[in-house]
Amino acid sequence: MAEKVKILISEDEIRRRVKEIAAQINRDYQGQSVHLICIMKGSLFYTCELARNLTMPVTIDYMAVSSYGSDTKSSGVVKMIKDLDESIEGKNVIVVEDIIDSGRTLSYLLENLSLRKPARLALTALLDKPDRRVTEVTVDYTGFVVPDYFVVGYGLDYDQRYRNLPYVGVLSFTEEE
Ligand code: IMP
Ligand code: MG
């Protein structure tokens, strides 16, 4: 089956929205520093774009979890593949996620991270698919709310491909080559 990607959110729209979110974080954490946690690999692009629009002292760490395998549906099992390098105790942590779908990954992560005693624990997601939620999560800073499509690009993959697209697009499968 052939795969097709149709643009849903353009490069420009993403850039503008990320600037707005950064401005809000700059206001909310005025005079403080923030510690960004990039959830690999999907949040790579969003973390970079966000970080370079922040004006306070910023540190960055990353962790890797997996809940999808090579399917377009979540398996429901969250696996920790790489943990953080540094302690988050006493830090203003902002978890940076690409997309919240069922909410399973984030509720697992937030619970895990809150036990490590950060001063403040916030969450930002570039995309939110609320239709598919099975576990409640509070997103402090949301980029875009999207319908229940499988999306790729700007860090998001299908079987590890399409992450490099500068926009977010909807992936569809067609019979013809
Ligand atoms: P959740 O645990 O169901 O909320 O899944 C969240 C993770 O699944 C995200 O961090 C993504 O890596 C992946 N994911 C969810 N929806 C999509 C999608 O539409 N395209 C690509 N990856 C997705
Ligand atoms: Mg992810």
What does it look like?
- With 177 residues, the protein is of the alpha/beta class.
- The chain has a single domain, classed as Rossmann fold (3-Layer(aba) Sandwich), CATH 3.40.50.2020.
- Helix content is 21%, strand content 34%.
- The protein has a 6-stranded mixed sheet, sandwiched between helices. The protein has a 3-stranded antiparallel sheet with strand order 1-9-8.
- Strand 2 (34-40), helix 2 and strand 3 form a beta-alpha-beta unit.
- Helix 1 packs across helix 2.
- Magnesium ion binds at residues 39, 42, 98.
- Inosinic acid binds at residues 42, 67-68, 74, 97-106, 150-152, 156.
Number of distinct helices? 3
**What is the total number of structural domains?**
1
**How much strand content do the residues show?**
25-35%
How many strands, which pairing sense, and closed or not: the largest β-sheet? 6 strands, mixed
Bound molecules: inosinic acid, magnesium ion
What average pLDDT do the residues reach? 93
Strand order of the largest sheet: 4-3-2-5-6-7
CATH topology: Rossmann fold
Order of helices and strands: EHEHEEEHEEEE
Which term fits the overall shape?
A: globular
